[in-house]
Amino acid sequence: METKPLVPAAQYVRMSTEDQQYSIANQQAAIRTYAKSHGYVVASTYADEGKSGVGIKDRKELRRLLSDVMSGRAPFKAILVYDVSRWGRFQDVDEAAHYEFLCRSAGTPVRYCAEQFDNDGSPASSLMKALKRTMAAEYSRELGMKVLAGQRRIALLGFRVVGTAGYGFRRMMVSPDGRRRLVLKDGERKAIHTDRTILVPGPQKEVACIRAIFELAAAGETPKEIAKELNMRHMLPSNERSWGRFQDPDEAAHYEFLCKAAGVPVHYCAEHFSNNAYLPNLILKALKRVMAGEYSRELSDKVFAGMTRVAKQGFRPGGQPGYGFRRVLLSSEGVPKGELIVGERKSITNERVILVLGPGIEVSCVREIYRMFISQGLSMQSIADELNRQAVPFQGAREWKAHSVRRILTNPKYKGTAIYNRTTARLRAPQRPTPDYEWIVVPDAIPSIVDARTFEAAQQVFREKHWSLSNEQVLEPLRRVLKGLQLTSNTNGSA
User: Fold this and answer.
1) E strand or H helix that includes residue 9
2) In CA terms, which of 211, 266, 294, 401 is 20 to 30 Å from 132?
3) Higher pLDDT, 392 or 470
4) Domains and CATH numbers, the chain
5) Sign (positive/negative) of CA torsion 288, 293, 299, 302?
6) What's the confidence (pLDDT) of residue 473?
């Protein structure tokens, strides 16, 4: 059978902020998967890194892509884009359609790899694409308003919102309770989401230079004369050179109806429509509800793809470290920046979190738990009772429980294996276990507390104990007992 030749395609990828280092990689991975299953081969790459999708002015790669396509000499026959929003969040949705039409007219169609519709020109796909373009534009508009509101609030509290410190100052990161942590270097951003930034005086030579500038200005010297005087004194500059995103739109309508039926109407303060029975407003409200749900679904897919990639690289995607471990924040270059305490989270996207061994008393306690379980044959409750008798503190100064011991004895991280996606609760669905073939398993990603042989010995004990019996294994003896009781009852009755 003759193999159909692969169609050469260009991939266009874009990320909106420079700290989303892994976003480009996620887009390219999705595009590769799409290309493989649809008969394409990626021949060219155009990447706008750290560029907003609101306009085209600063997106050099998209302009280069359009130029190559319109020249007729492009070495590809299609353009692969992750989704509609990566093509652009143009505030005028006709602008997005204009650029796509130019490509299609030149014989180079645009394919959206992560969308749930085929960009084939059918009425259904055209309607969905128009909706997604509107959603992309509306997302940017709403996000801009929310970011501005948050930054205004921070500024009114006296904190530094954005930007460099300026000559004579430095940026200091402070904790939520006002404790000063460290001075941020040029290019660094606060690493913990709840921390804030303030300005503090910089090096003494810069402070002295600023005072000299004011003194010279007060003496009547011009800016040019002041600069000349500062250069003569070798005073050089420092550089020397919402309501809800329900997946079912009817759920949002249900809750609003309950309020309205009780005589308490809902008004949306930042929307461009009045929440009344006027037909265009009803249509727009229904559209916005669908947009809200679709945004959460797409965001969930993107977050899961990113966290999966992080987990495969051996980093900690999220959650508490567990007894015997601690979380350490790494810079984008892999340099440890410090330990994260309970409740702290990283704030810079391209930084990562790893697990390291905790205090020696916890490490020793974990090994003792395995010894008591394997060598002494103690039950989990007996081990918990013994640890409480010895006054060994558990996390948060709580007492040990049998289930706390069980988690330590069954979690593969104690032998150094990281596992992600054992359970899922995406989009606020009830938590459920995932099939083991969907797990992300990374051996030797964590410093081990017990060796693999010890961990497997503990699992063997579990397999041999009664608490590991299946439901059927538990029910079968009960059935026999019940059957025996029925026979006895029948015998006594006949007697």
Assistant:
1) strand 7-14
2) 266
3) 392
4) 7-143 (3.40.50.1390), 249-312 (no CATH), 325-464 (3.90.1750.20)
5) negative
6) 62
- CA dist 322 and 317 (Å) reads 14
Q: Over the range 373-393, which residues count as b (16 or more CB within 10 Å of their CB) and which as e?
A: bbeeebebeebbebbeeeebe
Name, of 39-48, 337-346, 387-396, the range with top average pLDDT: 39-48
Sole residue written with tokens 């060796």: 451
Report the distance separating Cα 67 and Cα 99, nearest Å: 11
| Apex 314 CA angle, 309 and 320, nearest 5 | 95
Task: Please state whether 232 falls in left (phi above 0), alpha (psi between -120 and 50) or beta.
Answer: alpha
For residues 39 and 4, is the Cβ–Cβ distance under 8 A?
A: yes
Q: How far apart are CA 310 and CA 420, in angstroms?
A: 10
Distance CA 166, CA 489 (A): 92
The CA distance from 138 to 144, in Å, is 10
DSSP for 406-448 reads HHHHH-GGGGT-EEE-SEE-GGGPPPEEPPGGG-EEETT-S--
Task: Give the relative orientation of helices 279-312 and 123-156 as an angle to the nearest 10 degrees.
Answer: 80
Query: Amino acid identity, residue 20?
Result: Q
Two tokens, residue 44: 């060219």
- 127 SS3 class: helix
